[in-house]
Specification:
Structural class: alpha+beta
Strand order of the largest sheet: 1-4-5-6-7
Largest sheet: 5 strands, antiparallel
Strand content: 25-35%
Shape: elongated
Distance between the termini: 50 Å
């Protein structure tokens, strides 16, 4: 009788230890691999007349974040775009070589992982595709520099493979996911 109970308990554990990728495990692996939360940034090319033209079509000057050197001449080395003190809280670390070329990196928003909305098992449960959402939080005024519609959420896919030690996220998915 003891052997029967022991066999029954083992059968329950084996049956419950599914090789399917759960949403919770996918979430955990995505956070680890993609290092969420992230910062969405943009380079502003202050010395580029085309970039200045693009920036002039935003409300950043009216809101007091930037000014333009409209009387800049060809021999003048001042940037077309200058930043006010109001813009400084949105500055990110910019490489010295970029600063020398009048480039400033600014924060657009924070990117956070929303939720895993679904997991599709493939190849006899040896690979999986998970769909997840990201959300943009703490959106700065510099979002106006992003062309097109800036959505509050986006949907992305992540690809996973089952190894002998568990699930791993694939950075370069192969044909097995198609």
């Amino acid at each position: 009788m003891k052997n029967f109970i022991l066999i029954l308990i083992c059968a329950v554990f084996v049956g419950c230890s599914s090789k399917e990728l759960s949403r919770e495990k996918a979430f955990e692996l995505i956070v680890q691999s993609k290092k969420y939360p992230q910062i969405y940034d943009e380079d502003i090319f202050a010395g580029d007349p085309e970039h200045a033209e693009k920036a002039s079509k935003t409300n950043l000057e009216k809101l007091g974040y930037i000014t333009f050197n409209r009387k800049r001449t060809f021999l003048d080395d001042r940037p077309y775009i200058e930043f006010t003190a109001k813009a400084k809280p949105f500055f990110l670390e910019t490489p010295k070589s970029d600063v020398e070329h009048q480039v400033q990196k600014v924060k657009i928003s924070d990117i956070v992982l929303g939720e895993v909305t679904g997991v599709k098992m493939l190849n006899e449960n040896k690979s999986a595709v998970a769909e997840y959402t990201i959300k943009y939080k703490n959106i700065t005024p510099f979002v106006e520099l992003i062309p097109g519609k800036f959505s509050q959420t986006d949907t992305i896919k992540a690809y996973f493979s089952l190894f002998d030690d568990g699930w791993r996220i694939e950075n370069k998915p192969g044909s097995e996911f198609m």
